[in-house]
Amino acid sequence: MIAEGLDFPTIWETYLRRHAAVIGPPIQGYRDSEPILTIPLFYRQTLVFPSTKGRFAIE
User: What domain of life is recorded for the organism (predicted)?
Assistant: First the structure.
């Protein structure tokens, strides 16, 4: 993984913020009582970053 070991602010600034598929800023939320960040993408998808797992998933 290209961002392994990096914190989210570094990943956001370095890789995601200016990426063409990203259409908005990260949104903080909760899923199953765990904090998550969701990043809106084109085609009605989101990039989800659960802080406890430290891995991204596209939904």
Answer: Bacteria
